[in-house]
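As a representative case, we now present a protein record of this kind.
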Amino acid sequence: MNSDRKTTRILLPLLMLAGLSLAKPVLASDIDTHQDSESYRVYLGVVPASLLKKQPQLVDGDKSLHGGIGKRGSQHLMVAIFRKSDNSRVKDATVIAEVAPDKLLKRDKQIRPMEKMVTSGAVTYGNFFRIPNSGDYEIKVDIYEPNRSGAESVTFEYEFRIE
């Protein structure tokens, strides 16, 4: 039994590396992953859905992650939000993201709620969006907190490249 565990410990990392090496490289060029609004600091992360093997844990544990891991061409967008006043993490907001491939016409615009989830023990917000083609995308994030009127927004310019 011990030799099986030892073999698994050696083979598993090698298989994971092999799987990643077969994936098409996806590049996000010159993305500024940090934006400020009047009250918040917002950090953006984008990961190809195909690389997610494990479902992140949702704070509302009775739901599946954003309806399940996204389809081909999907990216998992995730934001971490901090209050500028005291650098505390925002854990109780309603967050809505809008992804549009064309800044002027906003055709194919996608608007989705960002679900509260736990990543490395900290609350973040995320969802899947279809970003199937290389090009420039605009990602707008609206933050609504309880006991505050209206939303504050930040916008990221995202250059997506498939190579």
